[in-house]
Amino acid sequence: MKRAPLLLAFAWVMALVATLGSLYYSEVRLFLPCELCWYQRIFMYPQAVILGLALWRQDFGVWPYGLALSLIGGSISTLHLLEQRFPDLFTLACKPPVPCGTEYIPQFPIPLQALLAFLLIALSMALLSREARGPA
Predict the structure, then answer these.
(1) Pick from 10, 96, 81, 12: which is nearest to 40 by CA?
(2) Which of 47, 59, 88, 121 has the least C-beta neighbours within 10 A?
(3) Top-confidence residue, 80 or 94
(4) Which 3-state string (H, E, C) describes the chain?
(5) pLDDT band with cut points at 50, 70 and 90 for residue 93
(6) Separation CA 38–CA 22 (nearest Å)
C-alpha cells in the first residue's frame, strides 16, 4: 500500500483535531484567544479544508501548501511559547484584553499543542513530497 494517502489522511486528521480543539477551547470552555492564538488559527483552520479536499480528490500535490502554512504557523506557536516563558522579552506581542502570556492549561500549554500539530503536519507534508515525486 502506498504511503501517500496515509500521510495525507494523518495530516488532515491533525488539522481537523487542532481546529475542533481550538473551537472547543474558545466556544465551550470559554477561553478567550489572544492575538497570537488568532494568528495560529489563521494558519491551521484552512488546512482542515485544504487537506480534506486534497484527500478526497487524492491530490498529493497539495504538500507545498500544507508545508508552508505549517511552517509559518509553527513559527508563530514558537514565538507564543517564548512569550509565555519569557514575558519580559516580548512586550509588544500582545495587547489586552487577553495577553499572550496567559496560560489556560499550564501543564500542556495551548501554543505547545498547536506547535506539535503544526510540526506533525509539516513532517507529513515533507514525507508526502517525497512520495508525490515518485521513486528516486
Answers:
(1) 81
(2) 88
(3) 80
(4) CCCHHHHHHHHHHHHHHHHHHHHHHHHHCCCCCCHHHHHHHHHHHHHHHHHHHHHHHCCHHHHHHHHHHHHHHHHHHHHHHHHHHCCCCCCCCCCCCCCCCCCCCCCCCHHHHHHHHHHHHHHHHHHHHHHHHCCC
(5) low
(6) 10
Total length of the chain: 136
Query: What is the spatial distance between Cα 112 and Cα 3, in angstroms, rounded to a whole number?
Result: 27
Cell numbers for 1: 500500500
Going by C-beta distance under 8 Å and a sequence separation of 6 or more, which residues neighbour residue 62?
8, 50, 51, 54, 128
Nearest to 104 by CA among 25, 16, 40: 25
Pick left, alpha or beta for residue 39 (phi over 0 → left; psi -120 to 50 → alpha; otherwise beta): alpha
Q: Which residues contact 116 (CB under 8 A, 6 or more apart)?
A: none
